[in-house]
Design brief:
This protein is an alpha/beta fold. Helices cover about 35% and strands about 10% of the residues. It has 5 helices and 6 strands, in the order E-E-E-H-E-E-H-H-E-H-H. The protein has helices at about 35-55, 90-100, 105-110, 125-135, 140-150, and strands at about 15, 20, 25, 65-70, 85, 120. The longest helix has 20 residues, at about 35-55. The chain is globular.
Length: about 180
């Protein structure tokens, strides 16, 4: 929340078990120790960023305005494979940056090719751009996010919005997410 600009507006609600796709809906089981705790914290951060930026859910059978349910299970279940590409989109880079801000080891997470935001699969350039933002002064990043927040939630290429950080000309690849 500290990394969000004031122009971000009302944050999404976080719910356990059931809620609309506009909320961050997480499972009913939480890890409290070690890697399980890290995975639980990362899972809620990914889902929160997905809801905040209006990204599609990993369950593409659920559309806007519908509720979805996340039932508890005894084992960790892998998420469905991302169904669309967020590569080169401004919202992907910002989403990865916001996620990394919430982690004590954000750079490690950004180095993972398995990291995705809902149904969106970021590219290597997106993860590298988010790492660049993570290293930049937070006030400078917040200023850019604040001035561009209305366009950040759109499915559009990053363009030169992040040029002040040396980020431009990012490749848009794959089937883009809506």
């Amino acid at each position: 929340m500290r990394a969000l600009p004031l122009t971000a507006g009302e944050p999404p609600a976080v719910r356990q078990g059931i809620g609309p796709v506009t909320d961050a809906v997480v499972g009913l089981r939480w890890g409290r120790h070690g890697d399980w705790a890290d995975d639980s914290r990362a899972g809620v951060a990914v889902e929160y960023v997905r809801a905040l930026l209006g990204l599609p859910t990993a369950d593409l059978s659920v559309s806007a305005g519908q509720h979805r349910v996340v039932w508890p299970s005894g084992d960790l279940q892998p998420l469905p494979a991302p169904a669309c590409s967020g590569a080169g989109q401004l919202r992907t880079v910002v989403g990865l940056y916001l996620f990394a801000q919430a982690q004590p080891d954000g750079h490690r997470w950004l180095g993972s090719e398995g990291l995705h935001l809902g149904a969106m699969q970021p590219g290597a350039a997106d993860r590298a751009a988010a790492a660049t933002l993570l290293d930049a002064p937070q006030a400078q990043v917040q200023d850019v996010l604040s001035r561009n927040w209305s366009s950040i939630r759109l499915a559009k290429p990053a363009g030169d919005t992040l040029a002040a950080f040396g980020i431009s000309g990012m490749p848009v690849t794959g089937e883009p997410c809506p």
